[in-house]
Amino acid sequence: MSSPVFLIGARGCGKTTVGAALALALNYEFCDTDHHLQQVTGKTVADIVAAEGWEGFRQRETESLMAVSAPQTVIATGGGMVLAEINRRFMREQGQVIWLQANAAVLAARLSAYPQSAQRPTLTGRPITEEMSEVLKQREVLYRDAAHHVIDAMQAPERVAAQILAALARSDRSGISLTG
Ligand SMILES: Nc1ncnc2c1ncn2[C@@H]1O[C@H](COP(=O)(O)OP(=O)(O)OP(=O)(O)O)[C@@H](O)[C@H]1O
Ligand SMILES: O=C(O)C1=C[C@@H](O)[C@@H](O)[C@H](O)C1
Ligand SMILES: [Mg+2]
């Protein structure tokens, strides 16, 4: 049975966008931990953070990660999923972990064009480019620590998906072959 594929990376790197295309290409299920969490609670991320703080949200996102993980599934994670060591270890042990890497300027441009503020309440209270620089400074080491593969996410989504497929096909552990 083929293990799950976890997409990690900062807000706006394309986990949800590329994840759906990747699942189609692999004929896998697609899950998104942010969407799962919002479905289960009936609340937006902003509502959960307002009621329970970021600590409450982080606990709930660990539960979502465990709930949606299954074989033959592509899982788009929330941008902060790597903050908890238990999440990083779980993803590495259960499946293949792909870091979609992009710089702060690209991320900020995407997020400004499509803010989705109910799903992405501010993390620092600072303007978006500064926020993304700060977030990357704190998290890059964690994304790198969790990832089996690092993919340049500053290319067109189809290109990003194709490079993930190629990386998975090169990896013995994924159970994925491009030829059959
Ligand atoms: N490779 C890409 N090239 C150009 N635009 C992209 C690319 N990937 C995603 N986008 C755009 O960037 C925005 C954010 O993408 P998406 O929601 O997939 O990011 P995400 O990593 O899931 O973010 P979050 O962590 O907040 O869930 C969307 O408007 C999407 O269309
Ligand atoms: O980068 C983050 O910490 C977050 C990213 C989003 O996917 C959501 O999970 C939430 O807004 C937190
Ligand atoms: Mg997403």
Descriptive keywords:
binds (3R,4S,5R)-3,4,5-trihydroxycyclohex-1-ENE-1-carboxylic acid, Rossmann fold, five-stranded parallel beta sheet, binds adenosine-5'-triphosphate, 180 residues, binds magnesium ion, 54% helix, alpha/beta, 5 strands, 7 helices
Can you summarize this structure?
This protein has 180 residues and is an alpha/beta fold.
Strand content: 5-15%
Please identify the oligomeric state: single chain
Q: Helix coverage percent of residues?
A: 40-55%
Secondary structural class: alpha/beta
Alpha-carbon Rg, integer: 15 Å
And the CATH topology?
Rossmann fold
Q: What's the level 1 CATH class?
A: Alpha Beta
Number of strands: 5
Distance separating the two termini: 14 Å
Summed over residues and divided by their number, the pLDDT gives a mean of: 95
Distinct bound molecules: adenosine-5'-triphosphate, (3R,4S,5R)-3,4,5-trihydroxycyclohex-1-ENE-1-carboxylic acid, magnesium ion
Spatial shape = globular
Q: How are the strands ordered across the major sheet?
A: 2-3-1-4-5
- CATH H-level superfamily: P-loop containing nucleotide triphosphate hydrolases
Give the SSE order as H and E letters: EHEHHEHEHHEH
- Uncertain regions: pLDDT < 50 for 5+ in a row? none
* Total number of distinct structural domains: 1
Q: How many strands, which pairing sense, and closed or not: the largest β-sheet?
A: 5 strands, parallel
